Amino acid sequence: MQLDRRQWFRRTLTAAGALVGARVMGVTAPLLSGCGGASEPAETSPVLRVPVDAVPASGRHEVLHKGVAVEFRREGGEIVALSMMCSHQMCRIEWKPDDERYFCPCHDGVFAADGSVVYGPPKRPLRRLTVTIERGEAVVDVHEIYRPLPREAR
Q1: Which residues, in sequence order, are CB contacts of 142 under 8 Å at separation 6+?
Q2: SS (H, E, C) the chain
Q3: pLDDT (tens digit, 9 = 90+) per residue, 21-73?
Q4: Which CATH architecture fits 47-153?
Q5: CA distances, 92 to each of 87, 118, 132, 146 (Å)
Q6: What is the pLDDT at residue 143?
Q7: Domain boundaries, the chain
C-alpha cells in the first residue's frame, strides 16, 4: 500500500502520540521490554517509604520511586523531602554539591539548597512534600508532586 506524505505524517504522529500517552500512563515498560514473557506485577502504591536511618545527619539521600525522584534530608531535627522535579516544566533537577544548589538542565533554572528559586524561568520553589514518620520510616505520597498547590503557595 502506497502512502502519500499527509497519510504518512498522520500515522507517524498518531503512533508518536500513542507512545507518549502510554508513557504518561506508565505502560511502556512492558511494551518496550523486548520479549512479551511474564513480568513482575507492577507496584501500585504511590507511597514511598524510606528508613529514617537512611537519611544522613548532614547531606542528602535521593530515592527514585516509580520514575519519580525524591530527596530526603534533615533540617532542624526533622526529615524533609523535596521533589527533584523542576517547578517550571517538571524536568529532572540535579544537586550540584560544589555550588550547593540545584540545577535544572532543561532551561538553566537554579534553586538554592532550601529549594527556593535563585535564577531562571521557574517562578515557584521546589515542591516540599509532606513527610510522616511511621514505625521508623519516613513516608511520602509521591502523587503530592502533581497535585495543585494551594492558592497562597502559587
Answers
A1: 46, 47, 48, 65, 66, 68, 70, 129
A2: CCCCHHHHHHHHHHHHHHHHHHHHHCCHHHHHCCCCCCCCCCCCCCEEEEEHHHCCCCCCEEEEECCEEEEEEEECCEEEEEECECCCCCCECEEECCCCEEEECCCCEEECCCCCEEECCCCCCCCEECCEEECCEEEEEHHHHHCCCCHHHC
A3: 655 554 444 444 444 444 444 456 788 899 999 999 888 999 988 888 899 99
A4: 3-layer Sandwich (2.102)
A5: 10, 17, 24, 14
A6: 84
A7: 1-34, 47-153
pLDDT tens for 108-145 read 999 999 999 999 999 999 999 999 999 999 999 888 87
**CB crowding 21-54: b at 16 or more within 10 Å, else e:** eeeeeeeeeeeeeeeeeeeeeeeeeeebebeeee
Q: pLDDT for 69-109, tens place per residue?
A: 899 999 888 999 999 998 888 899 999 999 999 999 998 99
Q: How far apart are CA 52 and CA 20, in angstroms?
A: 36
